[in-house]
Amino acid sequence: MATQTTTAPSATTSAPQGTGTFTLSNEPAFVDVELNYYTPPKDGSKPYQYITPDPTGRIPQRNWERKPYPARITNLRGHEQDVNMDETGFAFLRAATKEVAFVDDEQALQAYYQETVDLVTQHTGAQKAVIFDHTIRRRRAEPTPDTPSTRQPVPQVHVDQTPESALARVFRHLPAEEAEWRSKRRFQIVNVWRPIGAPAFDMPLALADGRTIRPGNLVPSTLKYPDRDGETFVIMHSPEYEWYYLRGMGTDEVALIKCYDSAPKEGGSQFTPHTAFEDPTKPEWAKLRQSIELRVLVFY
Questions:
Q1: What does DSSP assign to residue 173?
Q2: pLDDT tens sequence across 236-276
Q3: Helix, strand, or coil here: 167?
Q4: DSSP assignment, residue 228?
Q5: Does the global pTM surpass 0.70?
Q6: Do 210 and 271 touch, CB atoms closer than 8 A?
Q7: Domain 31-299 top-level CATH class
Q8: How far apart are alpha carbons 136 and 181 in whole angstroms?
Q9: CA 59/CA 146 separation, integer angstroms
Q10: How, if at all, do strands 243-245 and 65-75 pair?
Q11: How many CA atoms lie within 13 A of 99 on its CB side?
Q12: Which of 31, 59, 101, 260 could form a disulfide linkage to 54, CB 3.0–4.6 angstroms apart?
């Protein structure tokens, strides 16, 4: 889908038609915002978070707090080639899809799964890609908890996987014998993120250059499912992080986000911290964000 250009929005400007990429004439080079980081529990315990809140309210959904810190986020619109999976840990690709609504249509989702497998293997040169789940987020105007039935954008700096949880994914989603030998070779977990229905001016994704993250700022946090425990990284603040986003991502664009790499290139990124954030330059006509993300095991 070709890039379309509009004039900068004013108070009376209506939304442009279509769902593809829109570049405004006054495209900002960066935005200055606040991002939410992890603050450790006061009792020194390991952080945890429940996927589903306790309906009685007696058990807190998490035992740690968020604290906002200022951040400058560079807009890569027009400079998408400046980032890549091996070095920064993420990439932006133009990739049209036949599926645009992502309603509860199993056949359409399966077709999109195959599109995504083809996209990931072609871009990375991997031998095999296995999608193990997907999440559709549809932001609501009223405050809404992020639960399995009402998934919302996550305004918290995090990494979806730790080395331990990534390895567990291999053995969870592959036959035991295949998992045994593939786990000894290079593998990655990659999120493939795409806006749904309209360009994502609202609550876009900020992604950190993984090379600017110190290992000591990555804190393992237990992710508590109803039937098991997983693990993610929550992130402590540092002024060294370098943040980027692609303003107004269209439905014909995807972000490839490297959540884990078992054998990163020398000097390259192993993890990609990311977060949703409020963009102060969001046009008045921007629709509430909808997005789909597929989580993919990538084997070399």
A1: H
A2: 999 999 999 999 999 999 999 999 999 999 999 999 999 99
A3: helix
A4: -
A5: yes
A6: yes
A7: mainly beta
A8: 32
A9: 16
A10: parallel
A11: 18
A12: 59
